[in-house]
């Protein structure tokens, strides 16, 4: 039976960001620019990964999922913020709309958390266990793991949303925040919120911190394996495939921890870190991944028509493929597997080549 006090609030009023009140038009243009860059960058990465046959390895498969998540995450919050900057009515959100926004936000954010962990595991297998990599991360396994992150994220968000909106809410109905999130919404509840706060802290302690620990452990093994590589070029290539992932992980984890570990803190105080990880980070991720990844940059050039589909003249052959390398080092063979009609091999970078090309591998690092 529905609590009558809960029906006393049919809508909420989003107070927005305090520092935007004096110059709303200027901040509207700023958020519009950020949102446009976010959508353009992430959708461009998504189209590039989906259409370029050279980017068919698991690493780029997961990158496509991340770009889609970032585009959706920005769409959940930014348009409503811009509407509130234009008119007072734009700050009003219905009770049901608030529940939908909270669910979508935590669904996308938690799925991204699990995806970062999966990407770290992918890098661990590629660098630390290259012989197992093509088999362990085949096309079916990648699709299954990616689908699992979406499923767990949906269930995780459903639990938080149901616990939050089962509470009775009554006036005042002003949310001291720029979107519907758990800490500011709980402040308006007319009942004890201890259970909700404990669940939220458990979420940080078990889910988010657990994923972070798995990421850190993966990179401890990765660093140890990379340091055993004798050639400086091999070490640079290995680290280049990991630094971008580590950067976005730090940008993702630090601001939410500052917010959700202090559920009773004021909305204004949490506004700055929230803006960073809900609005700024999705805009930065495409640049972080492309600036340090030559394969993605070449694929973008091919997509935009500014580059040739052939490798540039004088460019060295790929360093991490199946086959043998003759020279001072011993012959090394790494197994291969087909991924969408292309050869994908274990090893650092997990580079792929069209069928029939001559393939090479790094000297064994012992």
TrEMBL record:
Source organism superkingdom: Eukaryota
GO molecular function: G protein-coupled receptor activity; olfactory receptor activity
Matching InterPro entries: GPCR_Rhodpsn, GPCR_Rhodpsn_7TM, Olfact_rcpt, Olfactory_GPCR
Keyword terms: Cell membrane, G-protein coupled receptor, Membrane, Olfaction, Receptor, Sensory transduction, Transducer, Transmembrane, Transmembrane helix
Cellular compartments annotated: Cell membrane
Protein name, entry field: Olfactory receptor family 10 subfamily S member 1
Task performed by this protein: Putative odorant or sperm cell receptor.
Main location: membrane
Organism phylogeny: Eukaryota, Metazoa, Chordata, Craniata, Vertebrata
PANTHER family to which the protein is assigned, alphabetical: OLFACTORY RECEPTOR
SUPFAM superfamilies xref list: Family A G protein-coupled receptor-like (SSF81321)
TM annotation in the entry: 26-50, 62-88, 100-121, 142-159, 204-227, 239-262, 274-292
Pfam family, one: 7tm_4
Gene: OR10S1
Annotated organism of origin: Ailuropoda melanoleuca (Giant panda)
Membrane topology, record value: Multi-pass membrane protein
Domain G-protein coupled receptors family 1 profile residues, every copy: 41-289
GO CC, alphabetical: plasma membrane
